[in-house]
C-alpha cells in the first residue's frame, strides 16, 4: 500500500476523533493530519495514545482562515481531505445560528478552494441525514440519496448549503468528491450535550433527563465505528461525485433510548422529565443504506451491542466526561434548560 497524506478536519471532535484513531491504527503507512480549531467540542486528550506515533500530526487551525489553510495545503499536498469540522449541535444552532454559517458554509468553501489548487485523490464531505428534513411515522418511508434536500434547522440548513457547495466544485471544477449523509452516531467520546451521552451522564449522577415534547420523535442510531468504516470505504472506493447515505436500520423513539439507558444502569424512570419541545423538532429520520451496502459496507454493531459497549465506556471513562461537564458546557447547559 502506498504512502498517502490524509487531512482530517475536526479530528478532535466526536466522530473525527474516532476516525483519526481508526486511520492511524489501520493505515500505519499513511500520514494522518488532524486539523482542528479546538472549539468547546474539540478535545486533544482523547489522542494521548497516538500523539507520539510518527504517522499522526496535529495542526491547530480555523478552517475559515483562508491564508493558514492555503499555506498548509501548499506545504503538505494532501492526497485525501476528509472534512468533519463543523458546528454540530442543533440546539446551539437555534440559539446562535451565525457561527454555523461561518464554520459550516464558509469553512467548507475555504477547504474546497484549497483542495482545487492541489491534485487530490478525493475530498470526502461528511454530512448528515438532517439535510433531507424529516419523515413521517410510516415505517416504510426512508431517506434515499435522491430525497430532496429540505433542511429544517439552521444547523441542517448550513450542512445542506455546504453539500451544495461540494457538489458545485465537482460539477464546475471537476474536484473529485464524495458526500456521505449519516444518521445519528453514538459511541465513545460523544460530547455530553447530545441525547445519549447526556442521558448516561445525568442518570449516573441521579439527575433528571430532559426529554423534548412527548419523546416520540424517532432517530436512526449508528455506532461511530461503523460510520468510520463507511467513510474509509467511500474515500477509497466511492464513485467520483457520488453521495452515500449511511445508516444501520436502528430506529428508536427518544423515549425508548432514554428508557434503555435507565434500565441498563438500574435506575428509576422517575428521572425522566418531559420539557418544552425543540423548535422545529424533526419528527423522524430513517436511512436507506442500500447504495453503500452495494459498495460492500455493513454495520458490525446492533443498537443493543453498541449501546451496551457505549454505556460501559462511559462507566470506565467518568473522568473524561466529568471534566467536560464541569467546564464551559455547564454554562451552556444552565442557559439551555434554565437550571
Ligand atoms: P463535534 O461537534 O463533536 O466536533 C466538531 C469538531 O470540529 C470539533 O473538534 C471542533 O473543535 C472542530 N471545529 C469546529 N469549528 C472549527 C473550525 N472553524 N475550524 C476547525 N475545526 C473546527 O461534531 P461530530 O458530532 O463529531 O460531527 C462531525 C461531523 O459529522 C460534522 O460535520 C457533522 O455535521 C457530521 N455528522 C454528525 C453526526 C452525529 O450524529 N454526531 C451524524 C452525521 C453527520
Ligand atoms: O441525524 C444526524 C444528526 O444527529 C447530526 O447531524 C447532528 O450533528 C447530531 O447532533 C444529531 O442531531 P440530533 O438533533 O438528532 O441529536 P441530539 O442528540 O441533539 O438529539 C437526539 C434527539 O433527542 C432529538 O430528537 C432531540 C432529542 N433530545 C435531545 C436532547 C439534547 C431530547 O429529547 N432531550 C435532550 O436533552
Automatic annotation (TrEMBL):
Domain of life according to the entry: Bacteria
GO BP term, example: nucleotide-sugar metabolic process
Domain NAD(P)-binding: 7-310
Single GO MF descriptor: dTDP-glucose 4,6-dehydratase activity
Matching InterPro entries: dTDP_Gluc_deHydtase (IPR005888), NAD(P)-bd_dom (IPR016040), NAD(P)-bd_dom_sf (IPR036291)
EC top class, as a word: lyase
Catalytic function, reaction form: dTDP-alpha-D-glucose = dTDP-4-dehydro-6-deoxy-alpha-D-glucose + H2O
Coiled-coil intervals: none
Family statement drawn from the similarity comment of this UniProt entry: Belongs to the NAD(P)-dependent epimerase/dehydratase family. dTDP-glucose dehydratase subfamily.
PANTHER family attached to this UniProt entry: DTDP-D-GLUCOSE 4,6-DEHYDRATASE-RELATED (PTHR43000)
Protein name according to UniProt: dTDP-glucose 4,6-dehydratase
UniProt source species: Oceanobacillus arenosus
Lineage of origin: Bacteria, Bacillati, Bacillota, Bacilli, Bacillales
Amino acid at each position: 500500500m502506498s504512502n498517502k497524506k490524509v487531512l482530517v478536519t475536526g479530528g478532535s471532535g466526536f466522530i473525527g476523533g474516532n476516525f483519526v484513531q481508526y486511520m492511524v491504527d489501520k493505515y500505519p503507512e499513511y500520514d494522518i493530519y488532524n486539523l482542528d480549531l479546538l472549539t468547546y467540542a474539540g478535545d486533544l486528550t482523547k489522542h494521548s495514545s497516538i500523539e507520539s506515533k510518527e504517522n499522526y500530526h496535529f495542526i491547530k487551525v480555523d478552517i475559515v482562515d483562508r491564508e493558514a489553510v492555503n499555506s498548509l495545503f501548499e506545504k503538505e499536498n494532501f492526497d485525501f481531505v476528509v472534512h468533519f469540522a463543523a458546528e454540530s449541535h442543533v440546539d446551539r444552532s437555534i440559539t446562535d445560528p451565525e457561527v454555523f454559517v461561518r464554520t459550516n458554509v464558509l469553512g467548507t468553501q475555504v477547504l474546497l478552494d484549497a483542495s482545487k489548487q492541489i491534485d487530490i485523490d478525493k475530498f470526502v464531505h461528511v454530512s448528515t441525514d438532517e439535510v433531507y428534513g424529516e419523515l413521517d411515522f410510516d415505517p416504510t418511508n426512508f431517506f434515499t440519496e435522491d430525497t430532496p434536500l429540505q433542511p429544517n434547522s439552521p444547523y441542517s440548513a448550513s450542512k445542506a448549503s455546504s453539500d451544495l457547495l461540494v457538489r458545485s466544485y465537482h460539477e464546475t471544477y471537476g474536484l473529485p468528491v464524495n458526500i456521505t449523509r449519516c444518521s445519528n452516531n453514538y459511541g465513545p467520546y460523544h460530547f455530553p450535550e447530545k441525547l445519549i451521552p447526556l442521558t448516561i451522564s445525568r442518570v449516573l449522577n441521579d439527575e433528571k433527563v430532559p426529554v423534548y415534547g412527548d419523546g416520540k420523535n424517532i432517530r436512526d442510531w449508528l455506532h461511530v465505528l461503523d460510520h468510520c468504516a463507511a467513510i474509509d470505504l467511500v474515500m477509497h472506493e466511492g464513485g467520483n461525485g457520488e453521495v452515500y447515505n449511511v445508516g444501520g436500520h436502528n430506529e428508536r423513539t427518544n423515549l425508548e433510548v432514554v428508557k434503555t439507558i435507565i434500565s441498563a444502569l438500574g435506575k428509576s424512570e422517575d428521572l425522566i422529565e418531559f420539557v418544552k419541545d425543540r423548535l422545529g423538532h424533526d419528527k423522524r429520520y430513517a436511512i436507506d443504506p442500500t447504495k453503500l451496502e452495494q459498495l460492500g459496507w455493513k454495520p458490525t454493531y446492533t443498537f443493543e451491542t453498541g449501546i451496551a459497549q457505549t454505556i460501559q465506556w462511559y462507566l470506565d471513562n467518568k473522568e473524561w466526561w466529568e471534566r467536560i461537564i464541569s467546564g464551559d458546557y455547564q454554562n451552556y447547559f444552565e442557559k439551555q434548560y434554565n437550571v
